[in-house]
Amino acid sequence: MMRLMRRERLSLIYALVLAGLMLALTARALPAWGAESDLDAPDAPVRLMSRVEVRDDFVRLRDLFEPAGDYADRKVARAPAPGEAAELDAVWLWRLAKGFGLDWKPTSTLDSALVLRPSRVIDRETIHELVRQAYFEETGADEFIALDFDQQDVALHIAEEATGGPQLARFTLDRTSGRFNAQITGPKGPEEARSLTLTGRAVRQVEVAVPTARISAGAIIRERDLEIVLMPEARVSRTAVVHADELIGQQARRTLTAGRPIAAASVDAPQLVARNAAVTIELRTANMRLTAQGRALESGAKGEAVRVQNLHSRITIDAVVVGENMVSVIVPDRLAANGGLQ
User: Fold this and answer.
1) Could you tell me which of 265, 251, 246 has the C-alpha nearest to residue 304?
2) Residues of the chain above pLDDT 70, percent
3) Cα–Cα distance between 80 and 24 in angstroms, integer?
4) In this structure, is the dihedral angle defined by the CA atoms of residues 193, 198, 204 and 205, taken in order, positive or negative?
5) What is the pLDDT of residues 199-241, one digit of tens each?
6) Structure confidence at residue 35 as a pLDDT band (50, 70, 90)
7) Which alpha helices (H) appear in the chain, and where do they start and end?
8) What are phi and psi of 128, to 5 degrees?
9) Is 201 in contact with 219 (CB distance < 8 Å)?
10) Confidence tier at 188 by pLDDT (50, 70, 90)
């Protein structure tokens, strides 16, 4: 009996050990409570990247989709040039995803990816100075030269990673016409160096005094009414008055436009005496000065001869305009002694 109990006890121990071992093996094989097994876990959804920035010449699969799978680094398209953008449409993206076994399809034709290429810009001023310097070295011309480019957008976009400045790779000039051709090359970055070809004309300029604002007819031109600007020589008429000192004090015969050269025929010496205006008649001799009141029968500028009438004697005489509403008469001393202004 004792031997039987001992035998049953051993069997019970063996059973408990075996059950524990099975439980341990089962616990290792099963996932944690509340978790799904790896076999049952769904794949992560593939997501389209609708806005992408690339830094080299190619767009890769991982730039467009996430996750991109085993072919993530595969080059799938050429990248736009630095500073430019390209849009990839829904149909193209769907075919691309199917070709690489990605579980993605567009929800509408509006699904797209915008690919941007950041850039560093070499601006118009920098390029202008390179071409201008080349022109001076070629011709030895003075600084009154303007470069008129044929292109509207004068800028060179290069990769952000590129270091250094632009270089003038080529410059040719037709001295007769002033036409030039220039090639600007940017520094090399992760891609080949980019270049920009420009054409245009070198235009000689002149300094011209022009109105800062509209000047009405009849107004006297003052120093503050003028400014000095550089203008293409071809735009300045040969009849234009270009020097400020020749315009200051003159009177506008017609309305003068701001920023435009002033023709000689558009200005005149100011009319200091107007027709029918009251004037002071001055008589000068070597020994005395007499004055009388009169009426101008003609208009006149300073230094011009006009006819005036003495209001006291009603005598008409010739006089020279010497100031605003003032004329001067020079007579011999013997006539003045006999009352020449009476």
Assistant:
1) 251
2) 82
3) 59
4) negative
5) 999 988 899 999 999 999 989 999 999 999 999 888 899 999 9
6) very low
7) 2-29, 61-64, 90-99, 124-139, 333-337
8) -60, -45
9) no
10) confident
